[in-house]
Every structure is written in structure tokens, then in C-alpha cells.
Amino acid sequence: MYRLLIYAIVYIFLVKVAHSQDPQFSQPYASALYLNPAFTGDTKKNRMAFTYRNQWSAIENGFSSYIASYDHYFRKRNSGFGGYLMYDQSGLNGYRVTGLNVSYSYDAKIDRWSGIKGGLSLGYSFLGFDQADLLFADQIIRDGSPSSIENSIQDNTSYLDMSAGVLYYNSFIWAGVSASHLNNPNISLTGVEQRLPMKFSFHGGVKLWNKTSSKGKELESLSVVTHYKFQSTWDQLDIGAYYNYSPIIIGIWYRGIPFKNYDKDFSNHESIIVMLGLEYSNQLRIGYSYDITISKLTMSSGGSHEISIIYEWPNVRKNSYRRRIACPKF
Q1: Residue 221 pLDDT exceeds 80
Q2: Is 323 a domain residue?
Q3: Which helix (H) or strand (E) holds 218?
């Protein structure tokens, strides 16, 4: 009886984990390679970026995500190359995913001001959790033995992962779509096949106005943005705006799908996101965002904190022409 109960609980936990959603970031353009591999090399510069997210900080053993990336633009080949390392930990028993991805993009010119970029990403991920705090039935039967003799649950597994994306852009508009987990990798820890479902992301926006200096530096701008994504039976919509008054960048988002209710007692309102960023010398940017929970989870969750640091430096001559993507800096 105990064995059946323990195994049922563990199996449900692991199956739920296997169908869980990917980590999400409130500053999606700060982790551009994760959002869409077509963004690789989009700044036409060398770029290093780091993001840390602490979701539901007041809940013990919540969600923590880290992502660090680098990308470079090869002007003569109209190509971008880069990669990112991501670590995500959630819930009890240290359930964690560590992934290393490399990405490539090609920039096809339409005219002087616009283009289409296509991108591919290939990665390898390690998934695992700590069984030390789990108590199995055979341990109870054997008078509280410190270890289990059962071996049907693995501590870890690894898998190959593939993603692709495409992006249209000009000086004021951008629109992209990406698909992750194209190969539906098996992430089971129980021996029973569990495939990671594909995730689709649609993102875009428009820069309503843009004021620049005589040297081309952006002094003031306002952008309206949207981001819709779905994976298996889960979906989410973000709508927001960024205002840039150099060196200050302010952003605000609404997250939820107000016209879609999962049941009569549960409205799909998740959070309001506010962001403040600073830019130094057109190279270094630091951004902080806070998710204000407006769902039934309420602010007892502690909300979510996110910090991003981006550093860019030129790799082309100053007088060379470069088409720019109008998407936000975070």
C-alpha cells in the first residue's frame, strides 16, 4: 500500500515536470537568442548579455533562471553566430535543467531599410533532480533505511534540442516567429517516454516615433510590443510598451489573456510588469523588472524579480552602413 502511494506521488510529480513549460523572461529582448535564433547578430555588433530571474520570491523553492549569451555579426557574410548557456531550477528536490545552445542566423536584404532573417539553434541539455529528500516505501518497510533499493527513477538525463525562427524587420516594424523543441526530445526520468512538446512564439511591434542625434544615437523613442507563446495546452499573451529617453528606458507590460477563462472562477490575468533600465555610452545597459501578481495567487507570491545586463561593442567601421532592427533594447 505504501509503495503504491509513494510511486503514485512520484510518478505524478515527474510526469507534471515533463510537461512543464519552458522558463520565461519578462525582458525577452535582453535574452534575444533564447526568444528567437533569428535575433543572433541582430545588433550588428559583438554582444554579451546576462539575465537572472527569481519568480515568486516569497514562495519557498520557487523558480530561479539564469541565462548568459554571446553573439557576433559577420558583416561580409551577412551572418550572425552565437550561443547561450541557461540554468533553470524549480520546485522541491532541486529539479534543474542546464542547456548549452549555439545559434546561426542569415540576414537577407530586401531593400536599403528592411530585411528578413532566418535562424537555427542546436543545443544539448541536462535535466536532473535530487532524490535525497524523497522517501520510498521500501525505506519505511526497512525501518527507515537511509537509501532505497528501487532503481526505476533516474537522477538525470540529457537530450539534444533544436529550434528555428524567422524575423522580418525594417526601421520601424519587426515581426518574428520561432519554434523550439522541433525534435520533441524525450526527457523522461522514469523509463516511460515523455516528449517535450514544441513551443511556438510570435513576437513583434512598432516604433511609433524615434528621435536621434546628428551622429545617429537614439535620444527618444516609444515602442509598442506584443508577445504570444504557446506550448501544449498552455498559452500566454504579453502586451506592453517601452519609452526611451536616453539614458533612461521605461517599460510596462500586461500579461494574461483576459478573454480566455479556464473555468468560471478563474480569470486569466497573471501580472503587470514594470521595468526600469539605464544605458551608458551606448554600450552598457542594465535593466530591472518586477512582476506585480494580479492573479488569484495574489502578492503573497512576492512577485517576480528580473535583472539584465547587456554589453555591446562595435565590430565594423564607424562609417559603414548597417540596417538596424527597431526592436526594444530589453
Answers
A1: yes
A2: no
A3: strand 218-231
